[in-house]
Write a structure and sequence with these properties.
Layout (H helix, E strand, L loop, with lengths): L14 E4 H8 L4 H20 L2 E2 L8 E6 L2 E7 L6 E2 L3 E3 L19 H5 L2 E3 L2 H16 L9 H10 L15 H10 L11 H9 L9 H11 L3
Antiparallel strand pairs: 1-3, 2-5, 3-4, 6-7
Helix pairs in contact: 2-4, 2-7, 4-6
């Protein structure tokens, strides 16, 4: 509160890009950099999930890559506006309201969220993170339905394509398997948790590796001024 009695809050100024804008500006990423980013998102998600929070709107626009002090390619997860507390969440009517408002982003929506029933836990966020990985590697969404309903139907019923079908650069088999595992329709077939996904990504060795030195050089050469 100010001395005049006005309430205010301070927001952090982030020096970077959301991942949607990044890919639109610079194109798809090399696989090693994608792994570097995904591991950071897993760190954030496992902390949230450990507290019983399911984000429910993981998408490129809610992930910022920035400079954070002396750290480069630092990923921040934003917008917990649709978060559910308590895990697992049992959905009753959380996707469509009486006015047909969709809560969430259809292009990144896990099947169990789209179906509006049954238990929902952190594995819904891992599905969405698989969609994000697909975007980072290919510059396109997993499914390309023209309407929200078309996208939702595809996420519920259609088999996810392999990202290598749309990538200009080779994608290592280990990384492709991880992405497709996140995109499984049934939560039990996905990585069991953000920690389990992080462990899989740690084993996904890609050469040349993307490091802090690589990131620093990129930001010095091409980052925002």
């Amino acid at each position: 509160m100010s001395q005049a009695g006005a309430f205010y809050y301070v927001m952090e100024l982030l020096d970077g890009y959301d991942l949607e804008r990044f890919v639109r500006s610079y194109g798809p990423l090399e696989p090693a950099r994608v792994v570097f980013w995904l591991k950071q998102v897993c760190h954030s998600l496992r902390e949230a999930h450990d507290k019983g929070l399911v984000h429910r709107d993981i998408k490129p626009a809610n992930l910022i890559v920035c400079r954070y002090g002396l750290d480069y390619d630092f990923i921040k997860l934003l917008d917990f506006g649709l978060v559910s507390w308590h895990a697992p969440l049992v959905l009753e009517d959380t996707l469509v309201t009486g006015s047909e408002e969709i809560r969430g982003t259809p292009a990144f929506m896990a099947p169990e969220l789209a179906l509006q029933h049954g238990p929902v836990d952190g594995r819904a966020d891992l599905y969405a993170l698989g969609c994000v990985a697909f975007w980072l590697l290919t510059g396109r969404n997993v499914f390309e339905g023209k309407t929200a309903i078309e996208l939702i139907v595809e996420h519920v019923h259609a088999q996810a394509p392999s990202p290598s079908q749309f990538s200009r650069a080779p994608i290592p088999d280990a990384l492709e398997r991880i992405v497709l595992a996140c995109l499984e329709k049934t939560p039990d077939k996905r990585p069991a948790s953000a920690t389990a996904l992080l462990e899989q990504l740690e084993l996904c060795a890609i050469e040349p590796a993307w490091t802090q030195r690589s990131a620093e050089q990129w930001w010095r050469d091409r980052g925002p001024r």
